[in-house]
């Protein structure tokens, strides 16, 4: 952590400073625990390993929003509400059609979520009950928005949601991809592993906006804007582009050696908190291998393993959640520039849960800054400058 205690120019106050807020506790939460030293992630106290092995995304979304795993009847009701809210208001399709076809999908998604606020009947109601209902709507609608924009930009008609399919299966279906059970489970696990992760950049952004008592759609729109950056959600896309740039297995060592020599960042490695390995990576590794075998395309998975070994020759850096998720999504047939929207489709449950938690015990998030500029400067008339 980079910290310093500085004196204000007037000498009146000493303010602790932490660059990037590293190590600063900005909120107390019951939603997820990120334990870096032990490489552990818990959702509402449940280890992510158990959820990735046994749960569905629908169960996990309910858990994050409500604080407990659903009973059978609660899950049936939650699923029914998700299915009922997958449809978009008709004007939303018109909006997506007006966007330039070369619009970056994350920009389209950010714009569309903001526009959805026009059609939500409870947009100004920030009560916990109304926010939970709006959360269900947004969780259901983000995959529909993503798939509809992808179809429209390729000159195709959007595929209507299928009420008989699970959340993950319907996402693949609307994208025009295979709903093979193994593909569905792979995406389901991906959604589970990405559903929440403590006070990351996009979640913190959502909570800052929620602390002003802005509505849920405003908070989620701001989170989407934060997720777009390559140091947060965009790293999964950059990882796949890196593998495509390397091209072949035999090029890996030379590429990694050159990257270290030129101080080029190798995407998908290292984590601000997990110094000894991201617990989500092991699950994504296994699913990446399974899908590679299933689609008879192990090349990129094998390249990923080679990159991992080559990086460790230089430095103790381990894959983060973005590294193996890149090949997993690629083998599902998802276009590379939809990787970050897929991240958003997973993380929206966590964002909504954090907005609800912020509303429950709200204080405006307003950190101070340390002024380090000049003092005693006077105005100079324009003719004397």
State the gist of this model:
The protein contains 16 helices and 5 strands.
Q: For the largest beta sheet, what order do the strands appear in spatially?
A: 3-4-5
Beta strand count: 5
**Spans where pLDDT lies below 50 across 5 or more residues:** 1-7
Q: CATH class of the largest domain, anyone?
A: Mainly Alpha
The percentage of residues in β strands lies in 5-15%
The CATH architecture name of the largest domain reads: Orthogonal Bundle
**How many distinct helices?**
16
Reported by name, the CATH topology of the largest domain is Citrate Synthase, domain 1
What structural class results from the helix and strand content? mainly alpha
Helix content: 40-55%
Gyration radius, to the nearest Å?
A: 22 Å
Overall pLDDT score: 93
Count of distinct structural domains: 2
Name given to the CATH homologous superfamily of the largest domain:
Citrate Synthase, domain 1
Describe the structure.
The chain is mainly α and about 375 residues long. The protein has two domains: about 45-185 and about 195-230 and about 350-360, Citrate Synthase, domain 1, CATH 1.10.580.10; about 235-330, Cytochrome p450-Terp, domain 2. Helix content is about 55%, strand content about 5%. Helix 8 (about 180-195) packs antiparallel against helix 15 and helix 8 packs across helix 16. Residues about 1-5 have low confidence and may be disordered.
Spell out the key features of this protein.
single chain; 385 residues; mainly alpha; Citrate Synthase, domain 1; Cytochrome p450-Terp, domain 2; 2 domains; 3-stranded antiparallel beta sheet; two-stranded antiparallel ribbon; 16 helices; globular; disordered N terminus
């Amino acid at each position: 952590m980079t910290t310093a205690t500085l004196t204000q120019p007037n000498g009146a106050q000493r303010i602790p400073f932490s660059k990037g807020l590293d190590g600063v506790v900005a909120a107390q939460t019951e939603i997820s625990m990120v334990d870096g030293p032990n490489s552990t992630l818990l959702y509402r106290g449940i280890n992510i390993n158990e959820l990735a092995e046994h749960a569905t995304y629908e169960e996990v979304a309910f858990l994050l929003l409500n604080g407990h795993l659903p009973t059978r009847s609660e899950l049936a009701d939650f699923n029914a509400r998700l299915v009922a809210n997958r449809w978009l208001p008709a004007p939303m399709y018109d909006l997506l059609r007006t966007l330039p076809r070369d619009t970056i999908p994350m920009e389209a998604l950010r714009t569309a979520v903001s526009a959805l606020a026009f059609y939500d009947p409870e947009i100004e109601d920030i009560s916990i009950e109304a926010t939970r209902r709006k959360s269900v709507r947004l969780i259901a609608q983000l995959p529909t928005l993503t798939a509809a924009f992808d179809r429209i930009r390729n000159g195709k008609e959007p595929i209507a949601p299928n009420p008989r399919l699970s959340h993950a299966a319907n996402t693949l279906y609307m994208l025009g991809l295979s709903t093979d059970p193994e593909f569905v489970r792979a995406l389901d696990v991906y959604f589970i592993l990405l559903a929440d992760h403590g006070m990351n950049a996009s979640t913190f952004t959502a909570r800052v906006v929620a602390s002003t008592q802005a509505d849920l759609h405003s908070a989620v729109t701001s989170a989407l804007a934060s997720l777009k950056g390559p140091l947060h959600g965009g790293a999964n896309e950059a990882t796949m582009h890196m593998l495509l740039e390397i091209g072949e297995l035999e090029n890996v060592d030379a590429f990694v050696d050159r990257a270290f020599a030129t101080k080029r960042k190798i995407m998908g490695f290292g984590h601000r908190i997990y110094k000894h390995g991201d617990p989500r990576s092991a699950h994504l590794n296994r699913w990446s291998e399974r899908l590679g075998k299933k689609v008879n395309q192990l090349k990129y998975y094998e390249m990923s393993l080679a990159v991992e070994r080559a990086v460790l020759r230089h430095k103790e850096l381990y894959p983060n959640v973005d590294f193996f998720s890149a090949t997993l999504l690629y083998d599902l047939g998802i276009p590379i520039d939809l990787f970050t929207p897929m991240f958003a489709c997973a993380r929206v449950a966590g964002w909504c849960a954090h907005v609800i938690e912020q509303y429950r015990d709200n204080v405006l998030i307003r950190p101070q800054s340390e002024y380090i500029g000049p003092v005693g400067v006077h105005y100079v008339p324009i003719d004397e400058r």
